[in-house]
Amino acid sequence: MEELEAKVIAFLPNLAKALIILFIGLLFAKIAKKALKKFEVNVVKKTKTEIDDIIFPFAEKLIIYAIYASAIIQALKQLYVPSKYLVAITILVFGVIIVNLLDKFLDQVQHKLVKKTTSKLDDVVFPLFRRVLKYSILIIVLLMSLQTLGIQVTAALAGMGIAGLAISLAAKDTLANIIAGIFIIVDQPFTVGDRIEIWNAPKGTSTWGDVIDIGLRSTKIRTTDNIVIVIPNAEIAKRDVINYTAISPKIRIRIPVGISYDSDLKKAEEIMLKIAKETKGVVSKPEPKVIVKEFGESSIDLELRVGIENARERRNITSEISRRIKEEFDKHGIEIPYPKRHVIIEDKSKS
């Protein structure tokens, strides 16, 4: 008991020194913080460039944290903490400080510079780069600290490699979607707001829609039935993308029409062209035209080709023109034929 009391009494001066060092460190940190704030207001804020506005807060915090960390390490020295532990703690403390400040610095870069660019690529890639860099530095700092303590990290690295391989195999679909998402953003086969064809829409629903979001893992498309379809990016990368509005909302539509061989071909063409020119949403250039595609089994197959102002009105305009063609053909006696079969029954008993 007396021996323990003696150790405690001998330890008290060192503890007092450690507390004094911590107090001095805190005092210096406060003085440095006030001085740096004045410098920021009087110098940094008055410059025209935004670069120093981003870098200075990072440098300011680095100085303050460095004062705190130095005080803590010096205080631990007074407590006779073994040197290897001091080195390990120093590496950890400064490593975490640097990672924290670097993350805040990159956050400022993201909000003040990256978000202002017109490209969406950096909006997706930069946060990913930020996370990878952050966790990579943390892992390196941790391994360095363990190595300082005499712990062999070779086996840990091998284990991490095997674990990484297992994770990559388990998450290969996710990785494939992320890589495909980056390529979609870079190549831009479509952008948010474009209308594209959908190959896996539910049966009986609309087969096209507007792109509402392009993420790293998937793309969201809202169909004209107001159904949101989420498609993995890797699936999109495997297929042809039909984009109706990539260059311009103006497209040309083709409407097939069949008339009987007995009908007036010229009159049918005149009616079709007149209806096309009168329909709202049809453009004058290129001019609507009718072509004879082929002679079918029971009809002359025509095709009305018209340019429309807005691709999103394709089906409405097709329906309106088709309906009016049927009405006008009926008025002018132009027959739209349907397949017919003549069945002749012979009475063999008379032969």
How is this structure best described in words?
This protein folds into 3 domains: 2-170, no CATH class; 192-238, SH3 type barrels, CATH 2.30.30; 251-331, Alpha-Beta Plaits. The termini are far apart. With 351 residues, it is an alpha+beta fold. Helix 1 runs antiparallel to helix 2 and helix 8 (265-278) crosses helix 9. A hairpin with a 3-residue loop joins strand 2 and strand 3 (218-223). The protein contains 9 helices and 7 strands. The strands form 2 sheets. The protein has a 4-stranded antiparallel sheet with strand order 1-2-3-4. It is 56% helix and 13% strand. The chain has helices at residues 2-42, 51-78, 83-112, 121-148, 154-170, 172-187, 233-238, 265-278, 314-331; strands spanning 195-197, 208-214, 218-223, 228-232, 251-259, 289-295, 300-308.
- Give the helix proportion (percent range): 55-70%
What is the global morphology? elongated
Main beta sheet:
4 strands, antiparallel
Structural class: alpha+beta
Strand order of the largest sheet: 1-2-3-4
N-end to C-end Cα span: 137 Å
* Number of β-strand runs: 7
**Helix segment tally:** 9
The amount of beta strand, in percent, is 5-15%
